[in-house]
Write the structure tokens for this entry.
Amino acid sequence: MYPNLIRQIKRYVAIDDREVLVINKYIKLLNLKKKEDLLKEGQPCRAIYFVEKGCLRMFFIDKKSVEQITQFALDGWWIADYFSFIDNNPSEYYIQAIEKSEIISIDKLVLDDLLKELPQLERYFRIIMQKAVAASQLRIKLMTELTKEEFYLHFSTSFPEFVQRVPQYMIASYLGLTPEYVSELRKKNR
Amino acid sequence: MYPNLIRQIKRYVAIDDREVLVINKYIKLLNLKKKEDLLKEGQPCRAIYFVEKGCLRMFFIDKKSVEQITQFALDGWWIADYFSFIDNNPSEYYIQAIEKSEIISIDKLVLDDLLKELPQLERYFRIIMQKAVAASQLRIKLMTELTKEEFYLHFSTSFPEFVQRVPQYMIASYLGLTPEYVSELRKKNR
């Protein structure tokens, strides 16, 4: 039913067919239209989301009312506002579909039940979270180390799929650049 | 033996005295002098580190040979270069004691064995990693959103202990400011 999620879990933990059915019982599939919101500012982030197929972006609206994208999630990635998810605080973020997407959602209380029934999934989520920490460490290093042009080149070389699927103005927002500057860089490095 | 670590684990997972002994069997205590390195650029990061007592900083050396601090860890925090830890790649970071510190180190293979013997610790590490992702998300948002002066004020208000314990030039490096500017801000906001 959810081949990408199940394949990813099996990469880290042994689960049999019966356990796959247990997982299916707990998770919820959401079909999002392009630009549909999964999370809005002011709501608590009650679930963690897995992109079975599609593409999401996470952003906040700054003091000048400008959308600032802090994360993307493509097929096979988890995304959530983890502070809000942990503490039930209202989120300062939006999570929105960039394209038509199939999203697996696991509510906080449901996740607790799932982990009680299949404790071996603690290991899967521990490894996934560890990878997310590694990715953030790299992101922070690149933000500190690289000029904006180098950051764009790094990003477009490391993630060519993004540059294909994600509108240019969103990549600009993620990298802290103006869309005009990204457009220039794109021409220059073609 | 390691009251901070054991107390933290017990906050999230039930462990009894026998299991505490198992944990003690697997972990290693390192007594670091001020400025002693736990990790050096070019070495793989073979362990994750818990600050039982003390203070660590993680930094890399940029193209201009300047130290850029990306993380601190005070009592009760875990720190590692997770990319290097996961993939065994040479690290681009240093992890160094800012003051005399007692550090608990768990080597990668030892962690695997510990988690096999006490699988309930998967849950503890999953929760700790989830909190680390939340902290990185906040860090990235603040780097995007705040002016450097606001970032300094946020940091010194949220973490007054750091401003007491960590030399001013290190806080400046972490915030991407010059030491002179931090000194000015400090006077201005006294």
About this structure: The CA atoms of residues 56 and 73 of chain B lie 5 Å apart. The interface with chain A takes residues 60, 62-63, 68, 70-71, 81-83, 85-86, 92, 115, 119-120, 122-123, 125-126, 129-134, 136-141, 143-145, 176 of chain B (CB under 8 Å). The two ends of chain B are 40 Å apart (CA to CA). Chain B has a mean pLDDT of 93.
